[in-house]
Amino acid sequence: MAIRNIVKLGDDILRKVCRTQLTFDDRLAMILDDMADTMYRAEGVGLAAPQVGILRRYCVVDVGDGIIELVNPVIEKQSGRQEGEEGCLSIPGKYDTVIRPMKVRVHAQDRNGKPFTLTAEGFKARAICHEIDHLDGILYIDKVVKKSGSEVNK
Ligand code: NI
Description:
154 residues; alpha+beta; Peptide Deformylase; five-stranded antiparallel beta sheet; three-stranded antiparallel beta sheet; 2 helices; 34% strand; globular; binds nickel (II) ion
């Protein structure tokens, strides 16, 4: 396991649409392990493959109740609405208000390719939506509804 470099805002990689992950092998497992390490080291709650320079559709999320690995995730259903502050490891020191669904149902594959469905609410739903957006080159700053004025690194 290793800490990977996190791609920062301004790098074109963050704006690309990622491709479906088709192979479920040791390499994928290693990258997912590295992504978890990298996320925990940076004290984030999620990290998507393009943030470590890989244009494939997978991400990791941990809002404090354990690691979730989502390979080829698709939001099947969403409901409700929440407004709250969001940040991103690729945009250090900045937080702004973004509207997300309150509840989502996600279909994805695990690191072995096995399909599963996950339901998440509240902050976990927010984190999952944020990471899946990364896979389509979308950043939370594209969706900000209210500037929080909490920009630390100018
Ligand atoms: Ni992010």
